[in-house]
Amino acid sequence: MQLETLSLMRNLKNQTILLFATGLGMGLIPKAPGTFGSLLGPPLVLGMLWLNLSLPVYLLVSVVLFLVGVYFCDRGAKILGLDDPGCIVFDEIGAFTVVMLPVFDRAIDLRFLCYSVIAFLWFRLFDIWKPWPVRYFDRIHGGWGIMADDYVAAIYAAICLYLTLILLGWF
């Protein structure tokens, strides 16, 4: 009986890990799972902004998401028996906090929706294109590599978001 209970607990733990690693199942969408998973990034950031976090706290949350993501992505990949499964999208979700750094202190209004769309497009470009050093980090195995390449892509996207907003006269 104890062996069955242990097996059920292990399955429940694995299911919970996969639930978070796949972005509440968004990563299970067959076409473009990374893009669909990234759609959870803007609501996450919106929630963080609604809480009116200071910059240090915002950055701390981003770092915590990175570290938690290393665990979820590493364990999720091992459960699935794959190195970097496309269905694991926690990395895209957490990295979006970095993309939105240039506008973390802006008002939540219609313009914020525009910021989010522009940020989303820049992030997807760099996450798919993987310019140096994003590609370098993409080659690192395990949770660290899964998370790091997206956070580096997010830095590129944040810079481009900032420059785009300057060009549009919104900054």
From TrEMBL:
<dbReference type="InterPro" id="IPR036681">
    <property type="entry name" value="PgpA-like_sf"/>
</dbReference>
<protein>
    <submittedName>
        <fullName>Phosphatidylglycerophosphatase A</fullName>
        <ecNumber>3.1.3.27</ecNumber>
    </submittedName>
</protein>
<dbReference type="InterPro" id="IPR026037">
    <property type="entry name" value="PgpA"/>
</dbReference>
<keyword id="KW-0472">Membrane</keyword>
<feature type="domain" description="YutG/PgpA">
    <location>
        <begin position="20"/>
        <end position="163"/>
    </location>
</feature>
<keyword id="KW-0378">Hydrolase</keyword>
<dbReference type="InterPro" id="IPR007686">
    <property type="entry name" value="YutG/PgpA"/>
</dbReference>
<feature type="transmembrane region" description="Helical">
    <location>
        <begin position="150"/>
        <end position="170"/>
    </location>
</feature>
<dbReference type="GO" id="GO:0006629">
    <property type="term" value="P:lipid metabolic process"/>
</dbReference>
<keyword id="KW-1133">Transmembrane helix</keyword>
<keyword id="KW-0812">Transmembrane</keyword>
<dbReference type="Pfam" id="PF04608">
    <property type="entry name" value="PgpA"/>
</dbReference>
<feature type="transmembrane region" description="Helical">
    <location>
        <begin position="49"/>
        <end position="73"/>
    </location>
</feature>
<feature type="transmembrane region" description="Helical">
    <location>
        <begin position="12"/>
        <end position="29"/>
    </location>
</feature>
<feature type="transmembrane region" description="Helical">
    <location>
        <begin position="110"/>
        <end position="129"/>
    </location>
</feature>
<dbReference type="GO" id="GO:0008962">
    <property type="term" value="F:phosphatidylglycerophosphatase activity"/>
</dbReference>
